[in-house]
Structure formats: C-alpha cells, structure tokens
Amino acid sequence: MRIPLAFRLVCIASALAVMAPAAHATWPEQGAKVGDGAGLQYSTVICADPAGGVLVSWVSLSDTEFATYVTRYDSGGNLAAGWPTSGVRVGDGGVSPQPLFYLWRDHSIASDGAGGAFVLWPAFSGFRVAHVTANGQLDSNWPAGGLRPAPEPITIWSATILADGAGGVFVAWSDARDGWRHVRVHRLQVDGSPYPGWPTDGVLTKTGFNEQDKPVLSLDGSGGVWVGWSDDGTAAASRAQSLSVQTYLRVLQHVTAAGVVDPLVPASGIGVGGFDVYPEFGMVGDESGGVFVLWDGSDQPHARAGSFVQRLGPTGTPSSGWPALGNLYSTSGNSLHGQWSAADGLGGVLTAWNVYVPGAGHEDVRVQRIRPDATIPPGWDPLGVRVGAALANGDLPLTVTDGSGGAMVVWSDSSLTPGETDLFAQRVDAGGSLWPISGSDRLAVCTAPGFQGGSRLEPAGPGSAYVSWVDTRSDQGDVYVRKISIGESPTATMLVRFDAEPIEAGIRVSWEFSGPSPFSEVELFRASNATGPWTPVTAAIRREAGVSVAEDHSIEAGNPWWYRLEALSPDGERMAFGPIVVEAHPRLQDGLTAVSPNPSRGPVTIQFALTAPTEVRLSILDLAGREIANLAEGRHERGSYQLNWDGRAKHDRVPAGIYFVRYSTPERITTRRLAIAR
Questions:
Q1: Coiled-coil ranges per the record (predicted)?
Q2: Residue 666 belongs to domain spanning
Q3: What is residue 585's predicted lDDT score, i.e. its pLDDT?
C-alpha cells in the first residue's frame, strides 16, 4: 500500500508547445482570503501538503485577540475537509506588526508529510511550536499552547523550524542560558517527543564568548541537519581594530542524524565569506550531503560587494571549483540576503534579486541558476535572467523550482498603479528562456487596489506554485493565497506516465514519453527522502509495450522511497521529472511468522509466508503430540497467509492447557508453543 505522500504523475500529452498561464479553475483570480478577516492579518507563511494542496499560517491582531492561526486548502482552492473557516488557532501571540514588506523568519511553518503542519511563532511566553493534524485539529500529544524549545524562564531570542522529511521537525533557536546567546537544534517526532538518541534539551552547536543569533536550517539528506547562524564573537577583534560598525560572520555547523555535532567538522563551526553588516543569509541543500550558503554584503578581506554563494561539501570545506570566499554572482542589487533561494532539483541552486538600473529610474528583477560546479548553465544570462516588463519597478523577488530545472519567480511591483504595489510572476525554463505569456511578459498574480506584499512562494508541481501575501484592498491588512501556473511543463508535453509500485522484494518504476523520446539519455534516481541525496538506480531498464520499466531490488523494505528521472537533451541540458514516492513492502520471511494472542482466551490468529509455491500443512497438536485440528493442507502460492483457529477440536472447545502449532512443508517443520487460558 502506498503511503499518503504518494502521488502518481499522469499528464495528458498535448500537441501544444505552450499554454497561456492560468490560475486553477476554482481559485479566485485575485486570490482567496484566508480566515474570517477580522482585525489585522499579517505575517503569512506557507508550505505545500503532499496531496497537492497548501497550508497557510498568519497572525491575527484585533481589539480582542493577538494570536497565530493556520488553515489548509486543497489544490482546487477549497477549504480542506474538517478545517474551520476561521482557521485553527495554534496559540496566543505572534510576530509584532512590521512594515508590509517585512519578511519574517521567527514565524515559520513545516509540513508533517501527512497533510498536517508544524507551526512556530513567538508566543507571549516565548517561542512555541504546535502540530496541527491533517483534519484541522491541534495534536493532543503536544502541550496545550505549544511546545517551548527551551524551558522557562530561559529567554529565546530567535527561532526557526524545518521539516525533517520523515514526518518530524527540526527546531533551532538562540538562547542565553549560559550568559551568551548560543544556538541549539532539536529534532522532534510527530508526537512532539525527542527523536531517539537526541538530547532532551537539544544539541548545543557551539560554545564560547560570542553572540549567536538568527539560526538557519538545511537538511543534509541523511537524517541530519546543517545549522547556520550570525556570529559576532568571531569578528569582534577585527571589528574593534578597523571598523566602526557592527559586523557579523556567517557560521555553520553540521549535526548528524544521531543528534551529535559532526566530528568531521571543526567544533568552532565553519565561517563562510568575510565580515558583513548584514546578519541574515540563506542556506539550500545541495542533494549530496553538503549545502549552498547565500548572502548579500561585502567580504572585508577583498572588499567585494554584491551577492554571494558558496558551496560546502559534507565535511564543511568548499566544494571543488568553488572560491574560498564564495562566488560573487551579482555586483549590485538586493537578493534579500539569499534567504529565499531554492534548490533547482538538479543539485544546483536558484536565487533572485532586484537591481537598480542607472538612468532608467526603475529596478529590474533577475533570477540565476548556479550549477553544482559553480558554473552558469548554457542559455542563462551571466548577469541573471531578467523577468518582468521593460518599465517595471520590481522588488522583493522570491524563487522556487519549476519542477523541470527552471525557476518560478514572484515579485512586488509599483509601476502599474501610482501609490500601490501589485504582485507578478514569471517562469524561466531550464535553458534560461522566459515562458511565453499571452498578451504580456509577466503573469499578474494580484492587481487588486491597495498594497500587496510580504509574499511567500511554494512549489506546487511542474510549472505551478502557491503564493500567499498580505493585502490592503479592503482594510488595513488581510492574508490571501492563490495557485498559479505558467506554461505547460515539459512533463506534460513529454512525459505521459511516471509511476512506482511496490513488488515483492523491491519497487517497480515505469515511465513513458509521448512519441519518440526527445532525450539522448534518461536516468532513474532514488532517495530516502524528498530532498535527496539522489543515488542512481543500477537496475536494468526494459521496454514493455512502449513503457520503460525498472525493478529496484536494492532498497530497504518497509520504508518510503522517492524516485525521479533526469534526462539529458541533445544540447547537453539536464531536466528533472518527479519526484514520486512509494513505500516498499516488507520482505517475505519464509515460514511460520506469528501466533497471537499467546496466551489466548479465545480465537488464535496464525500467520505464515512463502517465498515460493509449495505444499503446506498447518495443524494443532495437544501436549501428547496428537493432531486435534487441521487448519490448512495442500499447495499454496508465494505470498503471505493468515488463518484463524477458534479454539475447538472437532466441535468442542479445548480445555485450558499447553498446545502446539505445527507448520509443515517439504523443506521444513516448525512447531510453536501455544497456551490456552479459560
């Protein structure tokens, strides 16, 4: 049986190369207002749910309350079954009201992989984390009002969460229990309990006389996590000597799946880049156990200014081909300090920024894709691909993968109506080209009166994304959400089938392209979670009635596995399809597998399994070795079997005592002791 995360990608092949962009049929063109709209709503954060929908959290402030909420929509724009129209109130408090375009990190949301979500917010008594189930209920396993990462009365200065890819959540925070702000990280299971092996109060990432704040998280793909923070202690000496402003150093540490600081990484952490006045930065996993680090500023040793990216390998050293102080990919502009960059799905990273155009009086929005080897892919402008209209005034861009090696980009723009701000989107394909949009070169996400900003972006499948934002069209602030689609994805035009199903001792993966494959090479990859790392599947690929089929027998049974395709075009560009996920059947254990309950006061269930067809006889013996009941006899095919014994010999109930279950095949005889109590 497939787990709830499973989905099947079946697209109808089309002769059209592109389609005009459109929101989902039932999503309002100007977005759906979440909650009941009472008071001021702001600070929206979102995450996709595995069924194709979206979860949205926000803060509500009115004369009667100050609280944080969450709600869930399906992919068609309908409120999910069981969820109240006003949303689920996770607890008191929230981030303080800020300017409309301020982007919050201390308020965050993470999917539990089953339709629910974890929500982090700054409650009145300090940061709290709550779990809301898929049916819109606060999880009763968690403390009422949310779980506090650090016990009272310790002050928590900042915090964030990240889904662990296995149904739980990583929580990182900065507290000053020992006199200095130090960052800790914890991994919690879906019921709120610590992950096995993890310390009850989390892992201390670094000690010393320094201030650590604004933690950032990125999965390592192996059950552990990269933790980053801004650190002013390391830079203190240099700052005192030559600088008159506060500076920070980006520091990273790796915590393994076992809940310990990685012994291969320096205990003091890894400093990335130089000293900068901006404490914020972003991290994105590289799908190979390492991490990309992105930031804005200037590194003091070389006085370079602009936007930077660095790739660190699993041990924290710069990856091959990457400069020691990072790769300067833009010499001007604002990428929001790299906080909202994203993986491209092919081991690289996507990032977007806005840049002022001298003499033009406006700002451009640009997006760039950087490959694992630090190079820019063919077709992508080395200065970044420009999106939006020629006279646009773009700001605060966000980007996520388009599901096929390209990017979805959303930004704010004040050029359409004087004194107002609207939201627009565009898609850049894997080759660096803009997708055609009927009548425009950008998709209007929301052009309602007033201001739209503080947006969030979440991928929603090939060529689609969810956008949420704060909106003043009707009052001082409401939160809206919408699903957008731009173009028909390569998956829809090329791939008509991509499926995975469990088989005995493995998983069968099948796929089919429309007509002759347009690719020179197609390779199947597997991962133990949705974010990688991805490993090539070495199974032979065969053709069955035009469908490519591979049987993967090298997986661990009983666990979920993710699969994706990577295809190489004739011009050398790689494209990704998927991922899809499926749970492998437990491997058959040949023989008598269970007798329960034991002891029994009533019926007894007996289970056995066969790895090959054979003759089977299953019977009950008394203490003297006499057969008193025959439950099965004859040839049985490969598979699992379950039989029930009602505790009778012929027509009478057997008395209390000791009996034996005997399982016989030509290859073996197994006897299991059974106690009957009356």
A1: none
A2: 591-676
A3: 65
User: For residues 550 and 536, is the Cβ–Cβ distance under 8 A?
Assistant: no
User: For residue range 602-633, what is the model confidence (pLDDT) as tens digits?
Assistant: 889 998 888 788 999 999 998 888 899 999 99
Burial (CB count <10 Å: 0-12, 13-18, 19+), residue 251? buried
Is 60 exceeded by the pLDDT of residue 535?
yes
In a domain, 258, yes or no: no
- Report the CATH number at residue 542: 2.60.40.10
- CATH classification at residue 649: 2.60.40.1930
ω into 579 cis (within 30 of 0): yes
Q: Helices (H), strands (E): how many in the chain?
A: 2, 48
List the structure tokens of 553.
Answer: 């027998």
**Is residue 497 in a domain?**
yes
- Is 95 part of a structural domain of the chain? no
Residue in the structure block whose two tokens are 């109130």? 89
The total number of structural domains that make up the chain: 2
Indicate the length of the chain as a whole number: 678
Q: Alpha-carbon distance 182 to 75, whole Å?
A: 41
pTM of the model: 0.72
Helix (H) or strand (E) holding 458: strand 452-459
Contact 73, 56 (CB under 8 A): yes
Identify the three-state secondary structure at position 29: coil
* Residue 598 shares a structural domain with residue 577: no
Distance of CA 40 to the CA centre of its chain: 29
Residue 634 lies in a domain: yes
